[in-house]
Structure prediction request, 343 residues.
Amino acid sequence: MNAQRSIRHTLAALAIAGTTSGIFAIPSPAAAQASDFPSRTVEIIVGRSPGGGLDLHARGLAPYLEKHLPGDSSVVVVNRPGAGGGIALMSVWDADPNGYNLVKTITSSDLINQITTQSLTYKLSEFDFIGSLYYADTGLMVRSDLGWETIDDIRAAAAEKPIVFGTTGHGSTAHIEGIFVYERHLGIPVRFVHYAGTSEVMLAMARGEVQATAFGASTAARFAEEDENLKMLFVWSKEPIEYFEDLPTALDVGITEEEFDTAPPVLGQWRALMTTPGTPEPVLAILREAFLEATSDPEYEAWRVNAKIPKNVIPGEEFGEKVAEIEAGYLAIADELKELVGR
Prediction:
């Protein structure tokens, strides 16, 4: 933890102690913050361009979070794409810990960035988590005119020249999956082309600039439904997944059980909401309660089901423990990640 972060945590802890022990004769800063929180606009910052799955879900959740927060302040979505989501995370990591700056995370992508990009100094497990939203199985999308139906079709094409693979940035989830899973584990040579966000990758796919990409299944399937040039080849799962039962599984397209079971631990994405480390506990309690009420709201549920977005809500503190476990798994392969991403 850096010095600035340590100071913030210490000040927040002292402020909270003052509300319960009677040490201070005047109300603590934490108590003062919570008494009128929120008194201005709360921002959900999305580290991808508008139109992608992360953006879609943030905009779907925002009105219900606003509905269940006390007072009449608004909740708005702000897009800050770049650095594979790192710009958005750093903007919240370095913000004042007051609860007004929230950020959506894709755990796998953000952990990869944390390990491989020196300019990004956040540590994912040290954010204050509001709660998880869902777990996204990832899948491989290809151009439909290529005639690829199985993994062996792709291997045959790649034997002549590498598959052109679009990603949302150097070190992004798609980039790492392309290296670790498709190239190294499944033996498919890949050439990468990096873009600023999901929408840009989809446009590149539609124009024929790239042949394949990897995304969360719900995002990829939505784009495939809207463009006949795009096709979800399979989802990285042994069993059909919710809302997309008709999508082929990894085993359906010829990936063996051994290949599936021994794949590197870089697949799948938890989506969650978090805020600046050191946010006072009374403010966190307000945010977490509103989050749980929002994700249980019948109107939100109707929107989520219609948008074919899965649900796996885990309360903030509990999910923070899960992130620490996931982070430890990525740190165990940190040297390998750095070597492959830095090539």
About this structure: The chain has two domains: 3-136+269-341, 138-261. Residues 113 and 171 are 6 Å apart (CA to CA). The first helix runs from residue 3 to 21. The chain has 14 helices and ten strands.
